[in-house]
Amino acid sequence: QVRLVESGGGLVQAGGSLRLSCAAHGIVFTISRMAWYRRGPGIGRELVAEIISGVGTNYADSVKGRFTISRDGAKGTSYLQMNSLKPEDTAIYYCYANEVDPTHGTYDYWGQGTQVTVSS
Hints:
It contains no helices and 11 strands. By secondary structure, the chain is mainly beta. The chain starts with a strand and ends with a strand.
């Protein structure tokens, strides 16, 4: 059974930094895409950053220049380095991974979410 385990959330002052990690367990095939989404107070889920194998990275306009997504290995861990944090970054952050089974298609997985709170 596949699990995405997140860590690294917490409380930080505005201007500070946090690093989120997402470890994928039980992956059999290759992960083609890993991403971080967030859901803020009263706001729907939004894509924060994604990294796609063989393609590159994309970021929400609101985090460009402040956040960096990276990953380690085809079945491994993704990271979200968050710098210059703002109160509006306060949200629950969710890890996402897409596993490609060449025979049966693709599978989507989500982490349980980790809270990031930025105080002003």
